[in-house]
Amino acid sequence: MVDNIWAPWRYRYISMVDNDEDGCVFCREDEFFVARSELCSIRLNKFPYNNGHLLIMPNRHISDISDLSEDEQVELFGFIISAKNVLKKVLSPDGFNIGLNLGRVAGAGIDRHLHFHIVPRWNGDTNFMPVLADTKVISQSLYELRDILKEEFRKEGLSTDYI
User: Fold this and answer.
1) pLDDT in tens, 69-115
2) Active site residue: 53, 61, 113, 115, which one?
3) What is the pLDDT of residues 32-58, one digit of tens each?
């Protein structure tokens, strides 16, 4: 028997991607960036699986990890570690899902701009709401969390200004 993971709240986001004539949704919507350098960025996921769900990405529009430069590889992995450390400090999760979906068939809702996901997890963070009511409860405003995370990334020495 196969269990399904339902995330119907993401459909609106995913369905916009192929119809996006205004450019990359990640780059166009700069209000959720929490750290950025010349090579890479960290932003809140606008439609998170859990509170604190971050996306870490190169600034260049590439769709495969094979296309990353050596400098991008080093910085991207450093950003993943920094993001995990900041989330641990700010939100105190019990664990993390950290991953990458390469290609639409592999689950990449936005497959033209490579990005890693970091999803904080807590014991018992799955409850009846998504199962019975097609509703995911996120207990903190994205804007409130963005401001808290930006301050922590500043303390880590990362730029929080949009470049």
Assistant:
1) 999 999 999 999 999 999 999 999 999 999 998 878 877 778 788 99
2) 115
3) 999 999 999 999 998 888 899 999 999
State the distance between the two ends of the chain, measured CA to CA, in whole angstroms.
48
Q: Is 113 known to be catalytic?
A: no
The whole-number pLDDT of residue 126 equals 67
CA angle, corner 113, sides to 112 and 117, nearest 5? Answer: 125
Domain boundaries, the chain: 26-155
Contact 31, 142 (CB under 8 A): no
Q: Which helix (H) or strand (E) holds 105?
A: none
CB 79 within 8 A of CB 72: no
Q: With contact defined as beta carbons under 8 Å apart, do 65 and 80 qualify?
A: no
Assigned fold of 26-155: HIT family, subunit A (3.30.428)
Whether residue 128 has pLDDT greater than 50: no
Q: At what angle do helices 142-155 and 70-91 cross, to 10 degrees?
A: 110
**What distances in angstroms separate CA 37 from CA 72, 79, 153, 157, 160, one per listed residue?**
10, 10, 12, 11, 8
Residue 130 has pLDDT above 70, yes or no: no
Contact criterion met (CB below 8 Å) for 80 and 61: no
